């Protein structure tokens, strides 16, 4: 969500999707308001539902203690996780490096990080250039990839066990001795340029990108957007400087698969122990004012459906209210029983895609975001319905039934956060990266279990402020009837998404690329 | 998604699903297993008297299981005039049964019959070509809306999915392709019986609840995937042009006029015909003991009606003898795709097509990437893929490319044809062929450590080959592919008279104003 790269469409492979962890809205819960109302209207007309499924026994869950990876902290501060898994003959790994697009320092070179992530791997090393590396790896059904994200970059690898020594050595060569190539930088620029000129073709992509800008500001660390001019300004020296600077950071190394733990530890130590003590990036203190409330509109002539984004400022996971907020999210827009789903999709039939919640990131405020996709003529009706459900968090009292279903849904599926060894490893790396305690999930779960009706009511009151939200509509102007003024939220602000085209007078800039 | 080469070419329009995303593991690459023997020891198959096949694969890594219910019917089976029906039915399968989702089924059933009658009356008037009475139409519509409101009084909305959710269902969704309909989710293992109750219930006891509102929801899905998406629009035109007779040429989500008039009676008729035991395979993978689970599963899934597997369709796409093309002129960025008719997955050359796809498109070493992206630097992405849009019947082998700024679809076409010509005139290298075989094997292996992926693959292979072991045995065909096979197939299939191409030509606003817009 906060990842401006959603707009570029050409970003490199990034194994660690969770670094851009958009608010995870676990699924399911119910809105009982409608049912209660109907029951009152039709007293005693219906037989009591027998609920045969409640008679089906739920045996005790088989004992399960997720296998934790071995954590090794090297003297220089680098942290290594080793997760043995002998089910299949593969070994995979990654090195995460702090610092991502949000840490870029030159606005005139926005996009540097994406170019770095792409050109790093395709360039290759002194010993083996990127093309030779492709041949070597693909012949073995192996992979080495690099990628850049909003807060980190990474090298990752994976191969059959028998090839893993060679692949590991090659990955380390790429990590420590890349040789950035002008030709591959150029290739990355062209691919990125393709993404830039195409970024207004898909309305969902426009809605996501532009709504985040309303909250974080157009030029903020999470939203500034690469342009043709800014990517063309990036040089090989910029990539090298970025590499040298970030490689001094606190690297996190994770390896999983079918290996001998003693031998693997020795191998990883040999690769990383000789590095100098890590230099931590300065802590970030991202603060955002949130959107200027109101209605924003982007006209797109070739669609018959509006993308509506209702956005505000969310929170981060250090906030002690997170468990109660997660339960509130479940009730608002989590799954099938959520208020938004029940109202806008099931009851009104106005949307296929509808949902949302109060987002939470690990180390910076996320977005509050609710989204509805609806046919042009029902734009106002669907938006009003969604806004009413958001406002209803403060006016329609939560019921015990809602609370129970939301908690059951989150807690009974909690297991799927650590049901594979790879997920456990990912979680530990993530917590290490953001500086959270290793037992965070357990603490979080205990917090969820304790959430009461009063807690949910209190967080809704504290965090849900309908008057602070912005509404962005991307849609076909002439087809939207009634018009957006019928939302009664003040004047409609048009948003210009024209793509700046270098070398063209500003007046006609990019009109062809709209 | 390890190569960037697919972000535009493969987008979310590929498959319709109940909820938004669906990662189809359906074209599971084939190879030699971890080994087949270990899977045979852990996997139990049982065909019930009603014809339904149950597969249980034990993988007790964590106390969870995943399932896949695979119905051998999809939108290719939609009756004429009812495109989108199989997908509509998939949505209906989440609405509950006579036991869940209702306050009083007996009364609801009566109310639903009235909804159908009201819809029939309204439709009859609406469809009158001559003498339609608008006033009467408005009254009939009002009556239809009122009948729905009456029926809704008995509904407990989304109760089926809520019960699943509250019991820990994870990644709950379904997908409808042209060839099949699939339902799936994962759950804690102690909910196995609850799941069996829910799943067997919705297969055998579906109620056409809230049908007409769900039809509106599905229409929104069409708007999202196709109407409002330039590449979605283009692909719909590609297949509609490539096919003259077979249902693969129809819109899978449904043509707007047909989708908007599908009714619940038709959906239930589809259910009666296709949701019979012989058409259904249910696979369960995870922390489940077959010896304990099978009797219980048998009890529940025996409820599914038996009955013969429906007759197969008679239409066979005639041989194409003229090249066809579609040009969409609009203000979006250029795109090029072309397709060639190829046989179904049962053809002995199926693995040869896989080899061509792999050599042309898989990763940075692939011929199309190296040529169009790296060397000529005219495309951001280029790939060939097959089979599309389905695999059960003769389908297409497609090539697509995304031009870099300043380059045109015509250049993509020319460059693709050059690469195809090379396949026809010179053998692929030993290294290329070996790479395909190695990667096919490794990709199969990689999929085996995932409950949901395994359940999907087991249910699909059991349906398509009558034996899940084919997932492993197919490797024989992979290994037998020769360089001569590739050349032979390329020369047979990639010929101009067998080609349909589709492209987006970017139009400037001025030109658009002059000719009043391109295709919508």
Verbal overview:
The complex is a heterodimer of chains A (514) and B (520). Chain A is α/β, with parallel strands linked by helices and 514 residues long. Chain A has 2 domains: 70-272, Cytochrome Bc1 Complex, Chain A, domain 1; 286-508, 2-Layer Sandwich (Cytochrome Bc1 Complex, Chain A, domain 1). Chain A is built from 16 helices and 14 strands. In chain A, the strands form 3 sheets. Chain A has a 6-stranded mixed β-sheet, sandwiched between helices. Chain A has a 6-stranded mixed β-sheet with strand order 10-12-8-13-7-14, sandwiched between helices. A two-stranded parallel sheet of chain A has the order 9-11. In chain A, a hairpin with a 5-residue loop joins strand 1 and strand 2 (79-84). Chain A is globular. Chain B has helices at residues 36-42, 85-92, 105-126, 134-152, 159-166, 192-204, 211-227, 230-242, 256-259, 264-274, 290-301, 350-361, 367-375, 409-425, 430-447, 451-465, 470-473, 475-480, 483-493, 509-515; strands spanning 16-17, 43-47, 53-58, 64-71, 170-176, 181-188, 280-286, 324-330, 335-342, 379-388, 395-403, 499-506. The model of chain B is unreliable at 1-7, 11-15, 19-33 and 516-520 (pLDDT under 50). Chain B has 20 helices and 12 strands. The longest helix of chain B is centred in the first third of the chain and has 22 residues, at 105-126. Among the domains of chain B are: 103-154; 324-515, Cytochrome Bc1 Complex, Chain A, domain 1 (2-Layer Sandwich). Chain B has 520 residues and is an alpha+beta fold. Helices cover 45% and strands 16% of the residues of chain B. In chain B, strands 1-5-6-4-7-3-2 form a 7-stranded mixed β-sheet, with helices on both faces. In chain B, strands 8-12-9-11-10 form a 5-stranded mixed β-sheet, sandwiched between helices. In chain B, helix 2 (85-92) crosses helix 7 (211-227) and helix 2 packs across helix 10 (264-274). The chains are: A alpha/beta (514), B alpha+beta (520). Chains A and B meet through helix 1, helix 3, helix 5, helix 11 and strand 12 of A and helix 5, strand 5, helix 6, helix 7 and helix 15 of B.
């Amino acid at each position: 969500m906060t990842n401006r790269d959603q707009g570029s469409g050409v970003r490199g492979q990034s194994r660690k999707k969770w670094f851009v962890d958009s608010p995870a809205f676990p699924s399911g819960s119910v809105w009982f308001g409608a049912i209660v109302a109907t029951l009152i209207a039709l007293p005693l007309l219906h037989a009591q539902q027998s609920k045969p499924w409640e008679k089906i026994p739920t045996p005790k869950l088989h004992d399960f203690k997720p296998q934790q990876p071995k954590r090794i902290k090297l003297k220089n501060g680098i942290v290594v996780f080793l997760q043995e898994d002998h089910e299949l003959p593969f070994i995979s790994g990654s090195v995460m490096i702090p610092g991502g697009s949000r840490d870029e320092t030159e606005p005139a070179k926005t996009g540097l990080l994406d170019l770095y992530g792409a050109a790093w791997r395709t360039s290759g090393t002194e010993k083996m250039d990127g093309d030779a590396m492709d041949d070597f790896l693909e012949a073995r059904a192996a992979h080495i990839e690099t990628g850049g994200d909003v807060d980190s970059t990474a090298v990752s690898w994976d191969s059959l066990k028998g090839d893993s020594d060679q692949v590991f050595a090659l990955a380390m060569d790429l990590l420590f001795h890349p040789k950035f190539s002008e030709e591959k930088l150029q290739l990355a620029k062209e691919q990125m340029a393709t993404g830039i000129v195409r970024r207004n073709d898909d309305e969902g992509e426009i809605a996501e990108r532009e709504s985040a800008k309303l909250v974080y500001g157009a030029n903020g660390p999470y939203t500034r957007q690469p342009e043709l001019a800014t990517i063309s300004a990036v040089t090989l020296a910029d990539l090298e400087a970025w590499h040298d600077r970030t490689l001094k950071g606190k690297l996190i190394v994770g390896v999983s698969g079918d290996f001998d733990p003693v031998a693997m530890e020795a191998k990883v130590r040999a690769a990383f122990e000789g590095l100098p003590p890590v230099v931590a990036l300065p802590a970030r203190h991202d603060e955002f004012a949130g959107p200027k409330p109101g209605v924003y509109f982007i006209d797109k002539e070739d669609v018959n459906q509006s993308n509506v984004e209702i956005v505000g400022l969310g929170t981060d996971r250090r906030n002690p209210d997170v468990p109660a907020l997660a339960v509130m999210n479940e009730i608002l827009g989590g799954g099938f029983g959520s208020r938004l789903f029940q109202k806008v999709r099931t009851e009104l039939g106005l949307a296929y895609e509808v949902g949302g919640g109060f987002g939470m990131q690990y180390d910076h405020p996320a977005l509050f975001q609710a989204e509805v996709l609806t046919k042009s003529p029902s734009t106002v009706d669907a938006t009003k319905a969604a806004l009413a459900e958001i406002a209803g968090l403060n006016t329609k009292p939560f019921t015990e039934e809602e609370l129970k279903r939301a908690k059951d849904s989150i807690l009974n599926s909690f297991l799927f956060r650590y049901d594979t060894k790879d997920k456990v490893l990912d979680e530990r790396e993530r917590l290490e990266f953001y500086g959270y305690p290793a037992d965070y999930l357990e603490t979080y779960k205990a917090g969820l279990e304790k959430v009461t009706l009063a807690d949910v009511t209190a967080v809704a009151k504290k965090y849900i402020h309908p008057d602070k939200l912005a509404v962005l509509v991307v849609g076909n102007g002439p087809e939207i009837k009634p018009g957006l003024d019928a939302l009664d939220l003040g004047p409609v602000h048009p948003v210009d998404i024209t793509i700046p085209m270098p070398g063209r007078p500003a007046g006609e800039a990019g009109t062809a690329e709209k | 998604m390890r190569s960037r080469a697919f972000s535009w070419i493969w987008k979310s329009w590929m498959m319709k699903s109940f909820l938004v995303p669906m990662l189809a593991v359906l074209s599971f690459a084939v190879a030699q297993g971890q080994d087949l023997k270990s899977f045979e020891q852990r996997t139990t198959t049982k065909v019930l008297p009603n014809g339904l096949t149950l597969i249980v694969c034990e993988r007790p890594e964590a106390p969870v299981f995943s399932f896949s219910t695979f119905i051998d019917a999809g939108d290719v089976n939609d009756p004429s005039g009812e495109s989108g029906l199989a997908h509509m039915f998939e949505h209906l399968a989440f609405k509950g049964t006579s036991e869940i989702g209702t306050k009083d089924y007996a009364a609801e059933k009566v109310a639903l019959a009235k909804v159908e009658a009201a819809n029939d009356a309204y439709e009859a008037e609406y469809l009158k070509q001559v003498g339609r009475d608008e006033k009467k139409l408005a009254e009939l519509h009002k009556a239809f809306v009122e009948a729905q409101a009456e029926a809704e009084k008995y509904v407990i909305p989304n109760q089926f999915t809520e019960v699943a959710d509250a019991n820990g269902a994870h990644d709950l969704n379904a997908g409808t392709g042209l060839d099949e309909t699939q339902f799936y989710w994962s759950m804690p293992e102690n909910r196995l019986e609850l799941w069996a109750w829910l799943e067997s219930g919705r297969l055998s006891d579906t109620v056409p609840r809230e049908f007409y509102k769900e039809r509106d929801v599905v229409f929104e899905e069409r708007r999202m995937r196709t109407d409002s998406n330039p590449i979605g629009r283009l692909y719909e035109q590609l297949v509609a042009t490539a096919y003259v007779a077979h249902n693969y040429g129809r819109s899978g989500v449904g043509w707007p006029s047909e989708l908007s008039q599908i009714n619940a009676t038709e959906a239930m008729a589809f259910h009666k015909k296709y949701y019979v035991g012989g058409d259904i395979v249910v696979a369960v993978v995870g922390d489940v003991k077959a010896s304990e689970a099978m009797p219980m599963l048998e009890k529940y899934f025996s409820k599914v009606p038996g009955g013969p597997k429906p007759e197969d369709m008679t239409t066979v796409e005639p041989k194409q003898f003229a090249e066809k093309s579609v040009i969409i002129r609009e203000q979006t960025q250029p795109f090029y795709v072309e397709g060639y008719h190829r046989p179904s997955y049962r053809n002995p050359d199926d693995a040869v097509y896989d080899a061509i796809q792999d050599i042309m498109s898989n990763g940075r070493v692939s011929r199309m990437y190296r040529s169009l992206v790296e060397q000529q630097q005219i495309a951001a992405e280029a790939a060939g893929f097959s089979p599309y849009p389905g695999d059960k019947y003769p389908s297409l082998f497609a090539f697509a490319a995304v031009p870099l700024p300043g380059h045109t679809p015509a250049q993509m076409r020319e460059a693709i044809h050059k690469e195809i010509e090379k396949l026809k005139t010179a053998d692929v290298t030993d290294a290329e062929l070996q790479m395909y075989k190695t990667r096919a094997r490794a990709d199969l292996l990689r999929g085996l450590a995932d409950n949901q992926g395994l359940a999907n693959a087991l249910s699909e292979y059991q349906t398509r080959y009558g034996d899940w072991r084919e997932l492993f045995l197919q490797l024989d065909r992979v290994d037998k592919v020769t360089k001569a096979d590739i050349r032979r197939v390329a020369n047979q299939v990639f010929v101009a008279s067998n080609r349909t191409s589709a492209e987006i030509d970017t139009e400037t606003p001025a030109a658009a104003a002059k000719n009043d817009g391109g295709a919508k």
